[in-house]
Amino acid sequence: MHEPQQIRPEVVREHVPEHQFGVVQQPLTLMERVYNLAWVRKGLILMALAAVWQAYAMFLKNDLLLPTFTTTLDAFVSRTLTGELPGKALVSIKVLLQGYVLGMVLAMLLTVLAMASRLGNDLLETLTAMLNPLPAIALLPLALIWFGLGSSSIVFVLVHAVLWPVALNTHAGFMAVSNTLRMVGRNYGLRGPAYVAKILVPAALSSILTGLKIGWAFAWRTLIAAELVFGTTSGSGGLGWFIYENKNTLDIPVVFAGLFAVIVIGLAVEGIVFRTLEERTVRRWGMQH
After folding, report:
1. Structural domains of the chain, count
2. How confident is the model at residue 22, as a pLDDT?
3. CATH no. for residue 123?
């Protein structure tokens, strides 16, 4: 025999008007509001790293191996107030901007050529496969032979460091643009540079910015390494040469002060320039969270 089917009792709920709905709101505490600030969280991380550095250096008790954070900070402040570190940094940044801008322009030209024809696409893929794995600093001896002593040699290796990551990321971004956007551009009669500037670049801007950040990081470390190996540029040394000179005199706190300056500039460019550019473009447009 089958068991009798159980009938669930009917439940009638009264209708509640929408204006009676209540949302439980609890204000954030001061600690929660402070913790929601990205610069505060990153500042805490940097403070923790500085504390670990200080503790380990005090444990070693050997300034030739690792000076304390406070000693390095004193050297950094004193050399900054004398104008030596800002002057060296300005020399490095001038050379860096030359190579960075030139590499970025060449990357855009190669990418546009790759999008315009199959031959251009094959050219970009072949060149990136050949030259992208090649360390930029490895080209410095050849650059010295080709361009001689001066900033032109360093600019050459900087172009190599910037060109391929920017071109690869830009090309990947262009290829990821949806067919709908492409057809919209074609329907409006856009062709050539206008099509790239008004359709492809805005749609692929997130990938382009990623390539620019990678290119900047590659260029910055390549520049410092080139100055360490090569030395002065145009009669005056940059941060790499500053580090090299003080290493020869065994002034290790000042060496770390030079490295600290390299880190500070890198953090400033990443946190101010690129972050501002992202917030005013891709994040405002809803392309990045």
Report:
1. 1
2. 57
3. 1.10.3720.10
